[in-house]
Amino acid sequence: MSAEPDGPEDRLRRFATIWSRAVFPVTSTSLTRAEFEQRLLPLAGRLRDLLHTRGFVAEEAKAIGSALVGAHCTDPEALARTLDCVDAYLVLYCGDDSPRDELRARSSRLQHAMAAGYAQALRERTLAEQEAIAQAALRAQGVVAQALHASEARFRAVFEGAAIGIGIADLDGNILQVNKALLRMFGLPEPGLRGRRVLEWTHPEDAPQIWKLYEELVRGEREHYHVEKAFNRPDGTALWTNLTVSLLRDADGNPQYQLALMEDTTERRLLNLRLRYEATHDALTGLPNRTLFFERLEKALGAGEGQRFGLCYLDLDGFKTINDSLGHAAGDRLLVEVADRLQSCATAPGEMVARLGGDEFVALTTGTDTESEVDELAERIMSALVTPVSIDGRDLLVRGSLGIVEGPAGERTAAEVLRSADITMYRAKSAGGNRSELADPEADARAITRHGLTTALPTALERGEFFIEYQPLVHLGDGSVRGAEALVRWLHPQHGVLGPDRFIPLAEHTGLIVPLGRWVLEESIRQAREWRERQAGQGAAGPLRINVNLSPCQLGHPGLVQDTVDILERAGVTPDALCLEVTESALIGADDDLLKPLRRLAEMGVDIALDDFGTGYSNLANLRRLPVSVLKLDRSFTRGMQQFPADPVDLKIVEGIVSLAHSLDLAVTVEGVETGAQAEQLRILGCDTAQGWYYARPGPPERLHELALVDAAG
What we know:
By secondary structure, this protein is an alpha/beta fold. Helices cover 51% and strands 20% of the residues.
């Protein structure tokens, strides 16, 4: 066995040798095989260079395909063998250290471009031959009276030696003469074609206008026409041709014969069908891909009145875990099995299944009664996933979330339908997965609004669309205003004023909560300074404190402490003017690294409040290790105090929490106070401060200052 080539040039020459051996037997050339190999070697070098080129140069690849035609590789089999050779050996012998998948993808694109260049060059050559033949025929016709013998000789030479098929028939459609190329196309002896009638050569795939053009030509109303037409061969296969039919007139200009020129395009058509299939089908599963699915969906949505559609959008639950734990090969095998099962679910007319990518699949049904059909299709899909899939001896449970959209054709675009199905699928996934959900226009609108708000958040901060309202914190002992909680609002150009529940989760998800939280802290500290300055000038007692909410994302941000210090120093405000509120859930199970920033802030004099206390599952003993100085009792514990008599269980719980907090030197603030009875009961239980609509709704900063002055005057 010979050794493998060593250097790049040796490997390139080996590739050129394999290529020449494959193509030479079907090439019409006077060169020897060695000489032919030398002619292919520069083309192989150009292919290698294109394989290593980052940006794909389609025209250069087309030029290589065109060069094959210039080398007399005009037999369609030469192109097929060339593409097979490039597909099998180009990456093997001419690849570099790039990832194989990337090289294979480039090789595939090279093949497509080469095929396009080859087809274009072959067509141009064929058209040139057709033109030469037509001109020869016309010249022969024009000089019949003067030099019939010489003209006949010239025409016969062109007729017999042409690479394309030529046939001559009279105006009644009787075939009079055919050349050898046409006989080879049909695989028939000459007697099998001569004497037949043109009208016998109909084919089921004939375009309607073909025979109308033929009738116009034989009546003398048309000089020629050009169409793509199929013919039946004796062996049952189809012969596809580019057919040009011209009218031949006698010396007086009267129609006399019809001349047909046929170019065999069967191999090219098969290649185009193969490329079309690869472009519209998923390489892994063989299912239609996103491109073909959108074509079918748009066709369904453009159907006439009374037509409907149903779409199921499936995403596998936990597929990433399978990929991460068992590897991508196992994940691919799982996808193939799921694809086979889904394909078996969509067998009725008007139904199809496609893979959009990753672990996402869609199933489409069309017709007049898709309301019931899509439900049945969804049930079949979910049932098909029940049986575990066996991969490498392991039985894997397959779960999926399914979004269903159904409706009349003509009302929505394909993009809108798919977006609705996607939203609905994620709604099923958010509900726990392994279930199906039906599209809800209101839910779609909410999801689209959420997406719009998420997109608008960054520019909203830059445009100054956020503002802060303040809700006073009142001392339950003497009724004085001790401070306020800062509550951020968004003045949206379209949706009006939005509360924090509409956009804070979105800001946390996108990471914008950090700059937004920094802005809220800066504005709140500036406002606290103004309150304190006005209080000092008007003799009001007790400096007001500002409470600012701190999200879990901000708590974990490394710049929290320094940002807070910088803001306090720039505003000239002491740390005791600030209280940072952190939700109980954010501190459940918090380690020392997470608590370290809070401890540093607490040591500086910033109060830390544990917000929504009682809604989590934290161990009360953990309160001793948290750097908090205030407990904010959740309103759910005080709601029962709005009625009379108050709920005795709530009273006992609040009394116990207050006692525990005070024993740990923690102040207790109560949220959601709405009645005077509530306030009095909480005062009796020993709570320190409260906030709620009983005292004031959130409002502008001036209102808080006015309340503080009223308390000072009282």
